[in-house]
Design a protein that fits this description.
seven-stranded parallel sheet, binds zinc ion, 34% helix, alpha/beta
Length: 239
């Protein structure tokens, strides 16, 4: 069975992307031969420099709650606009090292968010996240993780088992093309229940979207297509 194709990693001017959601959608439909079912918007959240100075949860929530709500609302509006053409998921990218002291606050601000891509996470962080993954209200994934570099003292086998058990998905990211460089990692995956997602990390060039084709071809060539995971839609509690 063919799995639907989603690109879960796209930035907009809400954070550091150059293109609006509609332009990103058009670029995906223009891929033509690649039947893209949907995209995720994954802007950086909880990352203004002032977050470093925030010392208590109330301050953190005050700083980010309306910003986050506005973001979610913007993406949900796009979801409605594109209904029937492309499914739009509400994602975000969160810097683990910057935010690890604020996880309880962040969990309370995720109404309407379908998934989080964590970046800058080390092995201690990944095990912490794995231990608490069930407490999160949405799907969790690792953004652009070069497993051998980011977890240098942990075997790849242990990394994949930890992620599979905690249902943390692994993003196949364009940054690492050609992906053959990481054959050692991908060779391990077929026998594990790991979830995979595709992400082009679209920022200032829509050409990034074209690399979705390469990511998908590699995943299929490796026999990993059935592992492609689509985060379930998280209905907003308030609507
Ligand atoms: Zn990133
Ligand atoms: Zn990104």
């Amino acid at each position: 069975m063919r799995q639907p194709i989603y690109n879960l990693h796209n930035h907009t001017p809400f954070s550091d992307g150059a293109y609006e959601i509609d332009e990103i959608c058009e670029a995906h439909l223009a891929l033509g031969d690649l039947p893209v079912a949907g995209i995720g918007i994954s802007d950086h959240l909880f990352c203004t420099p002032s977050s470093r100075e925030v010392t208590n949860p109330r301050q953190f929530e005050k700083l980010f709650s309306s910003e986050t709500r506005g973001y979610v609302e913007t993406v949900l509006e796009a979801r409605r606009r594109w209904e029937g053409k492309l499914e739009i998921l509400v994602g975000c990218e969160v810097n683990w090292s910057l935010n690890k002291a604020h996880l309880d606050s962040i969990r309370g601000l995720l109404d309407g968010v379908d998934y989080i891509l964590f970046e800058c996470i080390d092995w201690a962080g990944l095990t912490q996240l794995a231990n608490q993954s069930k407490r999160w209200p949405c799907a969790l994934g690792l953004a652009h993780a070069d497993v051998s570099r980011e977890f240098p003292n942990t075997s790849m086998d242990q990394v994949v088992r930890t992620m599979a058990n905690a249902r943390i998905f692994y993003e196949v990211n364009s940054k690492f093309l050609p992906l053959e460089q990481q054959n050692n990692w991908y060779r391990l995956l077929p026998k594990h229940k790991i979830r995979l997602a595709l992400g082009t990390d679209t920022h200032d060039s829509l050409r990034a979207v074209d690399t979705l084709r390469d990511l998908h071809a590699y995943v299929c060539a490796r026999g990993l297509e059935q592992k492609l995971f689509v985060p379930p839609i998280n209905a907003m509690a308030s609507s």
